[in-house]
Amino acid sequence: MDLLSPQIAGYFGQLLNGALLTLQLFAFGIVLALLLGTAIGIATLSRNIVVQALWRVYASIIMGVPSLLVIFLIYYGGSAMLTSLFGRSHGIEITPFRAGVAALTIVYAAYVAELVHGAVRNLPRGQFRSGRSPIDQAGV
Fold it and tell me: What is the pTM of this model?
């Protein structure tokens, strides 16, 4: 089957729109996941037991649930949850794009947080000590 056959050429515009939408979802999702995941990863370095327990619960639930299920839960259950929180007068509606971005952010923020947490934990203690040393450029 030829890539530019008449059967496929008629759908080229729709395929291009789908590819652009996918790139937009990726761009928004990855930026928000990196920001949220880095913040969560730094927060998990805390010695607070409550913060660590909340992180472990969040990580095991989110990493154990398929991404498609999270998308469905946010899209179908998100508007109901927001309506129950803020009342019907606000008319809150979650669009498919927003649900996709929110789901990708929630799922991949957990993986980014785990990466940040592991990366910082694996740094040698000497790196932190030398970073805190009061030597200026002239002393080096």
Answer: 0.78
